[in-house]
Amino acid sequence: MTLQLDVLRSVVDVDAEDWDGLVAAAGAPAFYHHAFLSALEQLPLHAVEDRAYVVGRDPGDGTLRCGVPTYLVRGVDPMRVLADHVPECADEPVLLSHVWHCYDGSPPVLGGDEHAWGEIVATVERLSREVGAARFCFANVEDDSEAARGLTIAGIRCVEIDRRFVLDLAPVADYEAYLASISKGARSNLRRYQRIADDAGVELRTLAPEEADLDAFVQLARGNAAKYGNAAYYDEQRFPRFVRLLGETARVIELRHEGRLIAGGIVLIDAAHVHWWSVGYADHAVERLSPAYLVFAEIVRIALAHDVRWVECGRRNEAFKRRHGLTPRPLSAFVSPALN
């Protein structure tokens, strides 16, 4: 397949309906929604020196077939992907696709064969040189994906970096069926925490971003992330405003006890997935209660209510995720040779 490729400096230069139609047709996640990318332009979640989008259209009818967002970053590595797996470029300017807050970095490309991916890679390489990147990197690409196959054929070095975890809801009809599908211990824990919350008068609500107390959520999330030296992942000023820009793509789960926010979760919703994108919780706010379990349970209910197949729960915390029926999907970074 031949593509007519262009490099654009803003996603607003592409009609939102056309862009989101490509994302849906390619089965790409909410991280590629027009609203998400537009929000990143207005409020980058980490330092970005430059950005551009490699956009491909069918040369015959002009149909949008490819959309690859890229971000020039330097010394930004909150998940320690570069430092731990590609240390030679940890401090170099790198043209990255996607930002680190995206744990599924397989960009929307329709019908991408060997020729098309070769063209995409060549365009990204030229762009990298233009913006002064020492290398380019497609990060968090699922190993079993069209993008991984295309980048491999294009000769880009593959480095396994992490795993993300997913829950397949296809076999279950409702929340009780989900509970029946997991181990007795995990099932008992979820039910016990629900009873404790009910007895303590904990209130749970799922809200649109503009209705939620995102400032309080960020304080909880930063406190949890600080345990791992990663509080900067949740910028106090930018993160709440960013989430509000997402509109219908996002929902915010709040758990309150005596009026105080004790836990929250931000979910992103697309045609096939509900993503547990972030969580924050207060330790020991209610005796014997681990509120993050209730956030997870609500996310499963949200997915079932939206009739989507997959609950995506991101990277790390493997023990919890396996215990609740999630399975891993290996992620890789495809890293170019030095360009200078």
> What oligomeric assembly is this protein in?
single chain
Main sheet properties: 12 strands, mixed
User: How are strands sequenced across the largest beta sheet?
Assistant: 1-2-3-4-5-12-6-11-10-9-8-7
Q: What's the number of domains?
A: 2
The CATH topology assignment of the largest domain is Aminopeptidase
Q: Give a count of the beta strands, DSSP E runs of length 2 or more.
A: 12
Which of globular, elongated, flat, extended, rod-shaped describes the shape?
A: globular
How far apart are the termini? 30 Å
- Return the CATH class of the largest domain: Alpha Beta
* Overall helicity: 25-40%
Radius of gyration: 20 Å
Strand content: 25-35%
Separate helix tally? 11
**Mean pLDDT over all positions:** 92
What is the CATH architecture assignment of the largest domain?
A: 3-Layer(aba) Sandwich
